[in-house]
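From the shared-data thread, chain only:
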Amino acid sequence: MPRTVIVCALLVGVAMWAPIYCVPPMETLLKEQLLLTHTQTSLLLSVPVLMLVATAIPAGVISDRIGIKKAIGIGLIAMATGALLRGTASDFSSLLGFTFIYGFGFGWTFPNLPKVVSTYVGKEKAGVAMGIVNSGFPIGMGLGLALTIPVVLPIAETYQGVFLIWSIPPLIAVGFWWAMVKEPQARPIHIEEPTTSVADLRVALLNKHLWLIAGLMSLHQFFMWSWTGWAPVMMVLKGASPDLAGIIASITIWVILPTFLLMPRLSHGVGLRKPFLWIPSIALAIVSWAARYVTVSASWYLMAVAGVAAATRFTTLLTLPVEMMHQRQVGMASGMVLSVGFVGGVIGPLVGGRILDTTQTLDLSLMVLVGISVASALLASRIPETGPGRIA
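Structure, as tokens:
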């Protein structure tokens, strides 16, 4: 495999997510210093997802025209710019505006990372390469959650300083990407020349099973962004210190890394996909219900179960369009699933913030997540089996 490209893509994954997930641990600090509501602070987490919804499909189309290096490089420049500007924000309006700039770069970069693998890596090694690249996501998320309060804030002293320090990973990623990655001289022979057409778009839009996948992805993102976004606050409400709350919340993220690597192999061995959708959904319903009652000391285990279940469902969802659609329609289908699916990532944290503003507790939000998880299990039962072990 082209190790330089893979390592740079891994670094991009870390740089994308760490500046987003430094926000949840600072929720209380931002609320007090900028006089915000919980709903307003949740916007700072939701905006990058909103921009992903808006830019996923255009980013994929334009990258086919200008090349993957330039496409991701442009996104990284926007991310680094937005991350730096957040460190100068003195009020909520400017902080939100700079977050939109960051979100544009995030939304432009995220859907193009799979194309890095398909462009530079042989088909027989694509699964391993994608697992390595995807591992940057939980690393970035976990670092943002775990280090922001106990390590970064004492050094930075202010929330502006925290944002400035977390702008370092995107800046490093920009430098490495433009300096180390080269556009491929020729497309690998296993890659078909894109022949996307209006007919292909119509096929994707009229595929009811693809819409079921997109709907399940939306419910998944509703859960995941709600859970990870409000987990530090939930731990503080249970009596944990802000330092400990961020570390406990990060457990959900850290277990994603081995899950990304192990569960696809298990699914391949079993030859089925649907059990890896509905079983995690039921597990997350139980986790959400139990979160209302567990103590801080028991929350470590709860966060781990939530991370394994959510990661299993997510990585399975990503494989379904590949197995369901014709090769030339996979990019369009995946873009559609991501665009529709991440709408849930916008709505979830806002719902949790509104409930917290109104009730001063997350109990009702957790019951909403129970309902979302039950609905996810029911929706998963309607999706056709695409695994190699399915009954013909």
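Confidence is low (pLDDT under 50) at residues 187-196.
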